[in-house]
Specification:
The complex is a heterodimer of chains A (about 475) and B (about 180). Chain A is α/β, with parallel strands linked by helices and about 475 residues long. Helix content of chain A is about 60%, strand content about 5%. Chain A has two domains: about 250 residues, no CATH class; about 150 residues, Rossmann fold (3-Layer(aba) Sandwich), CATH 3.40.50. The C terminus of chain A is likely disordered. Classes of the chains: A alpha/beta (about 475), B alpha+beta (about 180).
């Protein structure tokens, strides 16, 4: 059948819409936003505290900025500030209340509310002290708004602790992936790109950015200077190179930061530039706040990896095993496999499995967060079966769990293990009871797609039949006793 | 893909998102120098950006870095004592507070000329009503930069010839006392 032009246009729009939807709304986790909340929250507390050092001078009715003078700038403006409604004798009290709210925001207490209040406080301070602001205040307002949109309280927060206590859970769940987390992340990314592009374009009007003198002019400004870099006057090529690199970075950021190969380079260049501003040009708060925003360019999984690294570094014995990974495809595959293997009745204990997904499937699952906890729960005999996903663990820890499972086999504890192909050799040395099921998970995305199709096709059939029909497939029978 | 929003909500979020993106682009491009089209596009964007405190040009160090603006206040107190306050100075700590003062002096030096007397009066008013000054003379000081060649030839960053003073206004306490009441 011939495709008409309208079909082509419709297809183009469909593709456009799909890409738009994926770019802005594809659910993602919020660890990076949560770390940003701590950092930005800390900076908000500091800036608010510094306003408090001279509260009367900056926010009082007889301070540097009279309402009459402010009105000359904000006539017909929609800008609002809570300080416009606060009498002089209430300044300190309101300032203290705001400080408490900002602390609550930073630690992630009642974040849906405090994140919005933190933004309101930030812009209130800025609008009241309008002519004492600079890039720091602009960036903090931007970050606070987008963190509120992104739902930054989903991880590393008091809210998370309270949620765990409320649900009587033994350990933290990995944060839920949400569209709002993606939206908040993308807004920070895009706005940063717009900022750099605007900054770069406006610089191109200046002769000094073309003839290479701009960097000298920046470091020769004694009022900005915090580290004397004027010795660079003897090395004009360095100054000229830094001038041109700044323009190149700012103009091209918008286009190249999305590329996975260029992104690390651009983030490093940006960090270098902002650290230079922070250290040499007397604006440490601004430089650091700009760098905070770069967390929006870091994948949440990376943050989780760093968290694990530090947890293990501090206390190796308390290493927590969390289900962190996996695409939706991966989760669907594991769920399907477990459904095939397990009775849904009774209580189950699990480690490194997608608990929320299993609970939605009707399993009564208790979570273990360490090998020791896993073993203790198995030993008490109250669980119908155990589930563990070894393929998420480092090899030595996977071997540790397998040894434990082998030891417990004598107790006839039903156990389902997910392992990856490269871990199969670990099973060779073990003698496992028939109650232990080992499921080998293909690790490639394409394999998973095939696996889901296969698994769904055979879902009605009993497990033994599956094993008989495809003994050499992704499911392997346990080693013989 | 699963979107945890109703279709209507999702549509509204998208409409807002497109509008927001339009605004954050229209804001900086409408600032001088800009075309009439750019300025007109900001008519819708500016009120929204003002509300969110995002109405900025993001034009850091542009069109090019330049000298610094400082402010000096010569105060005479009722007992005849005279004091001079100047900012920014390195005595102002922490650095963030220093920068707050620096931005105020920069605004007076680089801001619109018509705003100059209004803000000079506001500063003088503060010194009369909070610090107890009787008379205040507000002077702005422009601290120019030496070129790299001049610097290498021995001209320092704080060479006296680089400072240019300009009296902005003289104020008396009586102008403000009534305002306080």
């Amino acid at each position: 059948m011939k495709r008409g032009p309208l079909t082509g246009i419709a297809g183009w729009f469909q593709t456009l819409f799909t890409n738009w939807e994926q770019f802005w709304f594809q659910p993602c986790s919020c660890e990076h936003l949560a770390v940003m909340r701590w950092l930005v929250g800390g900076m908000l507390i500091y800036t608010h505290f510094v306003w408090g050092l001279q509260l009367e001078e900056f926010f009082g009715s007889t301070g540097w900025m009279s309402q009459a003078a402010l009105s000359s700038l904000t006539e017909n403006s929609t800008a609002v500030s809570l300080w416009s409604y606060v009498a002089d004798d209430q300044l300190r009290m309101v300032h203290t209340i705001c400080l408490v709210i900002l602390v609550a925001y930073m630690i992630g207490l009642a974040t849906p509310v405090t994140s919005v209040l933190a933004f309101a406080i930030t812009i209130s301070n800025s609008n009241r002290a309008l002519i004492a602001n600079y890039g720091l205040d602009q960036i903090l307002a931007l970050q606070t708004l987008y963190l509120a949109i992104g739902g930054c309280g989903g991880a590393y927060s008091i809210d998370q602790v309270l949620r765990r206590l409320w649900r009587n859970e033994s350990a933290f769940h990995a944060p839920r992936k949400t569209s709002r987390a993606r939206l908040g992340t993308r807004l920070i990314q895009v706005h940063y790109a717009v900022i750099y592009f605007a900054a770069g374009c406006s610089k191109m009007l200046g002769e000094a950015w073309w003839n290479g003198e701009a960097m000298w002019m920046a470091i020769a400004n004694a009022e900005y200077q915090s580290i004397d870099m004027t010795w660079l006057a003897n090395y004009p090529w360095i100054l000229e190179f830094a001038t041109h690199l700044t323009i190149l970075f700012e103009i091209s950021f918008l286009f190249l930061v999305w590329n996975q190969w260029f992104r690390p380079l651009y983030l490093l260049l940006g960090i270098g530039m902002h650290l230079g501003i922070a250290l040499c040009m007397g604006m440490p708060t601004f430089g650091i706040a700009m760098i905070y925003g770069y967390l929006a360019f870091v994948r949440p999984q990376k943050i989780r990896q760093i968290e694990r690294f530090f947890v293990r570094l501090i206390n190796p014995s308390s290493a927590r095993y969390e289900f962190t990974g996996g695409s939706d495809v991966y989760k669907a595959a594991t769920h399907r496999l477990l459904l095939l293997e397990l009775e849904q009745t009774g209580k189950h204990v699990a480690m490194t499995i997608d608990f929320n997904g299993l609970r939605r499937l009707g399993f009564d699952v208790q979570k273990a967060t360490s090998v020791a906890e896993f073993e203790a729960k198995l030993m008490d005999g109250a669980y119908a079966s155990s589930l563990v996903s070894l393929e998420l663990l480092p090899r030595h820890e996977a071997a540790q769990v397998l040894t434990m499972i082998e030891r417990l086999s004598v107790h006839r504890v039903a156990c389902v293990m997910l392992v990856k192909v490269s871990q199969i050799d670990l099973l060779d040395k073990l003698t496992l009871s028939p109650t232990v099921r080992v499921l080998v998970i293909p690790y490639q995305q394409n394999d998973l797609h095939e696996q889901i199709s296969w698994s769904m096709h055979h879902a009605e059939q009993p497990l033994n039949h599956l094993l008989d029909s495809d003994p050499g497939g992704f499911m392997m029978p346990v080693p013989k006793e | 893909m699963t979107i945890s929003l109703s279709k209507l909500g999702f549509l509204l979020v998208n409409v807002w998102l497109v509008f927001h993106l339009f605004c954050i682009v229209a804001g900086p491009i409408s600032i001088y120098p800009s075309s009439e089209l750019q300025q007109r596009s900001s008519v819708v964007a500016v009120p929204y950006l003002q509300l969110l405190y995002m109405n900025h040009g993001w034009k850091y160090f542009s069109p090019q870095p330049g000298g610094a603006n400082l402010l000096s206040f010569d105060m005479t107190f009722p007992n005849g004592e005279q004091q001079t306050l100047r900012f920014p100075t390195n005595e102002i700590e922490p650095r963030l507070l220093y920068h707050r003062y620096f931005m105020m002096s920069e605004f007076l030096g680089n801001g619109p000329p018509e705003a100059e007397p209004i803000w000079a009066r506001s500063f003088a008013r503060k010194l009369c009503l909070q610090n107890g000054a009787q008379d205040v003379v507000v002077t702005k000081i422009f601290h120019d930069l030496p070129s790299r060649i001049e610097f290498l030839a021995g001209r320092t960053l704080d060479d006296r010839s680089l400072f240019h003073e300009d009296v902005v206004g003289e104020f008396h306490r009586s102008q403000f006392v009534e305002e306080r009441l």
